[in-house]
Write a structure and sequence with these properties.
InterPro entries: YdhG-like. It holds the Pfam family OmdA. It comes from Novosphingobium album. The longest helix has 20 residues. With 194 residues, this protein is an alpha+beta fold. The protein contains seven helices and four strands, in the order H-H-E-E-E-E-H-H-H-H-H. Helices cover 46% and strands 12% of the residues. The chain is elongated, with a radius of gyration of 30 Å. It has a four-stranded antiparallel beta sheet with strand order 1-2-3-4. The protein has two domains: 107 residues, Aspartate Aminotransferase, domain 1; 62 residues, no CATH class.
């Protein structure tokens, strides 16, 4: 496992009581997880395998914590090992190594279980209304812009126009659509970034 300089800096900036605890946990993680990576997540040192969290450690004012992801919370502190104020508060190294390797195995097993992709049926075509087609044809700039839109943008205009409840609303929407399309604007242009 390569060391991350950000983790070096985190440990160096820790309180005097915390430095030996964090160094010990880091060394232990290196021994137990030789293929893991060090990183900083949520502003705290973490150990990952294939980008998935295995364990993390943190220093607070008066204690440290060590979390092995997937093992659940125990006690009043965030990690499974309570408030760690000295090396003596940690369980035996062999127990921690076993827990880290079990977490690694869990993560790798979860990663190998492939989910079948969800195949969605394509949305049915919305037929082009005659009045909208005629309005587009009457304004060449609008027709050219509409033809250049991706299918999703064309569909948004078609849905908006065909879902009108009254003829008056439909005529207003066709007129507004032609104006916006001639300017190259998609249906929801007001909400687009940039």
């Amino acid at each position: 496992m390569a060391k991350d300089t950000r983790v070096d800096a985190y440990i160096a900036g820790a309180a005097d009581f915390a430095r030996p605890i964090l160094e010990h946990l880091r060394d232990l993680a290196h021994r137990a997880l030789p293929d893991a990576d060090e990183t900083i997540k949520w502003s705290r040192p973490h150990f990952t395998v294939k980008g998935k969290n295995i364990a993390g450690m943190a220093e607070f004012k008066a204690h440290c914590i060590f979390t092995i992801h997937g093992e659940g919370r125990q006690g009043e502190a965030m990690g499974q090992y309570g408030r760690i104020t000295a090396l003596a508060d940690l369980p035996p190294d062999a127990d921690l190594v076993t827990s880290l390797q079990a977490a690694r195995a869990r993560v790798l097993q979860q990663g190998s279980a492939r989910k079948e992709p969800v195949v969605r049926a394509p949305k049915p075509e919305i037929p082009m209304p005659d009045d909208f087609a005629a309005a587009l044809a009457a304004v060449p700039a609008a027709q050219a812009a509409y033809d250049g839109f991706p299918p999703s943008a064309r569909r948004e205009y078609l849905e908006w126009i065909t879902e009108a409840k009254s003829e008056a609303t439909r005529h207003k929407r066709v007129a507004q659509a032609i104006e916006w399309i001639a300017e190259g604007k998609k249906r929801h242009w007001k909400y687009q970034r940039g």
